[in-house]
Amino acid sequence: MRSKARIGLAMVLAMAIAGAASAATSIKDSKHDLSSGSAATVKGNTDQICVYCHTPHNATQNIPLWNRNNPVATGFTLYSSVSMQNTPVKNGFTTDSISLFCMSCHDGSTALGAAAVHNNPVDQPTGITVADVAGRTSAGHLDGASKYNLTTNLADDHPVNFLVTSGADPNIGTVTGATMKTGSVTNGFPLFKSGRGATTLECGSCHAVHDNTDPPFLRTTMAGSKLCLGCHIK
Ligand code: HEC
Ligand code: HEC
Ligand code: HEC
Ligand code: HEC
């Protein structure tokens, strides 16, 4: 009787833990969890999660305690068009652009681990190794054929790292006061502070890097294009 009750309790606990994990409000076990114990396919040889991107001390960039050696900011081409009401930027990121931080893995050439990680984790003092997975990673970086490799040409991607000015485009929701993020918000989506100003649109305006509740790491669902309609009055 007693042991049966114990098994029952263990099962309830196991289910509760599984339930919590599947709610996926944490980075843990998402594709951005590159730790050795992660459920992700692409991962490295340390069981730390945050170290691939953050460090508690001696960061490469103060905000957000960044632990990566980013690619050269000027090496990117960004979207631009004559119909944009805000001023698009064609050539290069600002060095503090949160989007450049994403591109330190999504450019398809910067290593995920190894020398791209500034401070090594205590359990891997000589550096992080990320094992290659056919079609996904090669030589420790995202593979050329990976759909996650956006390349350094972002002219074919939604504009990023440009200043969003209140009222510049009447079809864009209002830009309001600062949040705990580094900038402000448009209709509830965060804008960031960068060298271009305090309200720049970045990858992180649409993507929640730590939270895969709405895959792929989106700020809200794409059902009915809710994300797009959150900013665009269309
Ligand atoms: C794959 C890279 C990556 C990993 C791994 C990662 N972060 Fe982040 N984190 C970012 C980026 C990029 C930002 C800034 C953009 C943003 O806030 O959306 C950020 C911002 C933050 C912030 C400040 C703003 C916010 O969104 O709350 C905190 C706190 C934070 N991360 C904590 C953590 C912790 C703790 C871990 C490990 C459990 C972790 N991060 C793992 C990339 C990462
Ligand atoms: C430390 C490296 C790293 C950084 C920094 C990083 N990513 Fe990723 N990201 C990855 C890897 C690895 C994958 C999964 C690749 C695979 O499974 O083949 C991924 C996958 C994704 C996906 C697809 C998820 C899915 O379910 O299909 C999105 C979207 C994404 N990243 C967005 C971002 C954004 C936005 C940022 C910056 C805010 C960012 N990433 C920063 C490494 C990174
Ligand atoms: C305007 C919103 C928006 C911005 C800005 C944005 N993304 Fe995305 N991204 C999306 C949406 C929506 C999807 C999912 C598309 C789909 O599957 O319909 C996506 C998908 C992705 C994927 C997965 C690709 C795939 O084929 O599965 C990656 C990786 C990614 N984004 C990275 C980034 C990075 C890095 C940046 C900044 C340079 C960025 N995104 C900026 C909205 C955005
Ligand atoms: C966080 C707010 C935000 C979200 C979410 C968002 N956008 Fe945008 N988008 C903007 C802003 C701001 C501009 C620049 C508008 C301007 O200056 O005219 C823009 C520009 C564009 C442009 C280029 C317009 C031009 O004149 O060249 C297109 C197309 C576009 N967005 C489509 C989308 C789609 C599709 C989605 C959903 C996948 C989306 N956007 C999600 C804020 C957003």
UniProtKB/TrEMBL annotation:
TM region(s), chain numbering: none
Top-rank taxon, per record: Bacteria
Doubled CXXCH motif domain: residues covered: 202-232
Signal peptide stretch: 1-23
Pfam families on file: Paired_CXXCH_1 (PF09699)
Record keywords: Signal
Alphabetical list of InterPro entries matching this protein: Multihaem_cyt_sf (IPR036280), Paired_CXXCH_1 (IPR010177)
NCBIfam families linked to this entry: paired_CXXCH_1
Protein name as annotated: Cytochrome c
Source species: Geobacter hydrogenophilus
